[in-house]
Amino acid sequence: MRLDRFLSEATGMTRSQAKKALHNGEVTLDGELIKKSSAHINDQTVRLNGQPLSRPTDRYILLHKPAGYISATQDEVHPCVLQLLPMELRRGMQCAGRLDLDTTGALLLTDDGQWSHRLRSPKKACPKVYQVDLSDPLTDAKAADISERFTQGVQLNGEDQLTLPAQLVVLTPTRVLLTIYEGKYHQVKRMFSAVGNHVIGLHRLQVGEIKLDDSLAEGEWRYLTPEEVAAI
């Protein structure tokens, strides 16, 4: 494994931060100062500022999902999000939650099945924040009406129960933020359809306390920090 990748996995720092630490002479390999990020390691002892590092057993990743990728490990029609990860990271990874094919934004990946289950459990009621682009502009009165209906819960076609209370924040007449606490099939699109509007763009900004980095371009990823992992 490349040394900069090992540092990223062991500490949660970004690849650029790992390269900076190497350049600054903060990393040793079996006691030898190493500055090359392309150096490869096997069983050597890696230290950062004198502290030994080890790669965590479980891996937790935040991916900025592009449109056109399916949230699955394999598919015969569409490319899968795992293809956006390096080959050596794909083994055992699963999607902790899903985004539709045309939806972009924050998607969590892990090989920790229990953590993934906690995140997806209805009992957890983990908040998810979406930026939603609408086909029909909202007047102030219409926005207030939709906000009230979402707070009370709406009836989705084919569902027995109302949706959990959700919060709407209007950014522009055609762009809003919506926070939901469950993950029904195509839920955001179906919620707006239930109130007579149509979603033309959907982007997830946040899952629980984990926010999508502004600097993370579509298709890019990073490891979660220990604090982010513990927040689920």
Structure write-up:
It is a single chain. The radius of gyration is 21 Å and the shape is elongated. The protein has helices spanning 3-11, 15-23, 87-90, 113-120, 140-152, 187-194, 226-231; strands spanning 27-29, 32-33, 46-48, 51-53, 60-65, 94-95, 104-110, 128-134, 167-172, 175-180, 199-207, 210-211, 221-223. The protein is built from seven helices and 13 strands. The protein is an alpha+beta fold and 232 residues long. Strand 11 and strand 12 form a beta hairpin. Helix 1 packs across helix 2. The model has no long low-confidence stretch (mean pLDDT 91). The chain folds into three domains: 3-53, Structural Genomics Hypothetical 15.5 Kd Protein In mrcA-pckA Intergenic Region, Chain A (Roll); 60-123 and 216-231, Alpha-Beta Plaits; 128-207, Alpha-L RNA-binding motif (Alpha-Beta Plaits), CATH 3.30.70. The strands form two sheets. Strands 5, 6, 7, 8, 9, 10, 11, 12 and 13 form a nine-stranded mixed β-sheet that branches. It has a four-stranded antiparallel β-sheet with strand order 2-1-3-4, covered by helices on one side. This is Pseudouridine synthase. Its EC number is 5.4.99.-. InterPro entries: PsdUridine_s_RsuA/RluB/E/F_cat, PsdUridine_synth_cat_dom_sf, PsdUridine_synth_RsuA/RluA, PsdUridine_synth_RsuA/RluB/E/F, PsdUridine_synth_RsuA/RluB_CS, RsuA_PseudoU_synthase, S4_RNA-bd, S4_RNA-bd_sf. It catalyses: uridine(516) in 16S rRNA = pseudouridine(516) in 16S rRNA. Pfam families: PseudoU_synth_2, S4.
